[in-house]
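Why this split exists: single-chain examples teach little about how molecules sit against one another. For that reason, every record in the complexes split bundles all components of an assembly together and asks for one structure covering all of them. Below is a record exactly as it appears in the raw files.
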Amino acid sequence: MSQPDTKTRILDAAEQLFARDGFHHTSLRSITGQAKVNLAAVNYHFGSKEALLQAVFERHLLPLNRLRQERLQQVLEAAERAGRPPAADRLLRAFIEPTLAFRQAHPNNRAFIALIGRSMVEMDSTVRDCFSRLIEPLFRLLLCGLQRALPQLPPAILLTRLRFALSAMAHTMCMPDRTPLQIDSSSAPLDGGELAEQLIRFTCAGLEAPC
Amino acid sequence: MSQPDTKTRILDAAEQLFARDGFHHTSLRSITGQAKVNLAAVNYHFGSKEALLQAVFERHLLPLNRLRQERLQQVLEAAERAGRPPAADRLLRAFIEPTLAFRQAHPNNRAFIALIGRSMVEMDSTVRDCFSRLIEPLFRLLLCGLQRALPQLPPAILLTRLRFALSAMAHTMCMPDRTPLQIDSSSAPLDGGELAEQLIRFTCAGLEAPC
DNA sequence: ACAGAATTCAAACGATTGTTTTAAATGCCC
DNA sequence: GGGCATTTAAAACAATCGTTTGAATTCTGT
């Protein structure tokens, strides 16, 4: 069993630890310790801790975003052809379902999705700036689609509601690993698919509420 | 103009910096620098940085939570007397309106509410554990009320939706100072009251969505 | 097999952190 | 005003952080 190369081992360890402990609470020493590589390997292969974060993001987020963008555009074009506005829930689905599919494709992917969820609500500018550059075009496309789906909503209201929706999304993505709002844990937790359905239903109802 | 005493100056500075930069990214030196007190004063008056965080929380959160609990119980008792289940939007209002009123009562209070918003979505266990102990009873009361308001919802579903709602709330509270999901900033931002109304409408629609 | 490039390694660097220490200053009661 | 407790002040503490260094090692192409 030949181990993956140093770069990949670092990316895997960083992804997992960034997701679990956050960027600033994860030291290079803990990353290189888990990856079983030398401390200096991070700066040698990636240049800096921040560049490592960007590499962790780009490794999976670029392909995932391509998928989500394609799905979004399919929905928009199908609506165009039918001469109708797109349905809000289809737009949300185009956004969420590829994410869930990626998460369930491999056990290791769970950490990455949790990291994305964290990053969506991250207050630290280092992480957020790095993440925003990668995700903003997609958010913009989603907003644009929702404007057509819900033309009766003033843009400022829609934007506000989209922020609400994305907040709920973010927590759904990082909740499974560590629940931030732990009110009660008596009832059995929902599995990923059911959780996504609940999320779509909740956000859809919120977005479509009378104004 | 006699300045407030050392303890209060430290609390004020810590509140503001914790809200702006987060607990771990705020150094005691920056706090004592802004408060114009000596570095050792924090450990002398509060014991530790963590104890300072707790003091910052308790100073305003204890009175605010008392208010919110009273409002919640008023709604529950009024519904009891009328022999009807309480309305979900009244419960949410009992939770949100005192928060907004506190925020608008004094300019300095904005930082505190932003800190509370941050803490609701905080992943770091130091901050969250400290905050959770103070807020959990209130969340539990809200959940209990919503269970009566929406008896058709299975408890697990309601809990999931309440988490969605609280996520949206959290971001609404810390958004004004620094927006975490900055998709677009073209349209004029909503003021506090309008934002709270939108939040109530959105979360209400989401909570009451068919199951 | 060997030169040269690429990678790994142990060690140290400078900066920053929360905390502690020891002494000086201040306020307060008798 | 003297004596005592409280508060402030400056300095140093030990620990951790990201990063750099320079030599040792491994890999690669001919």
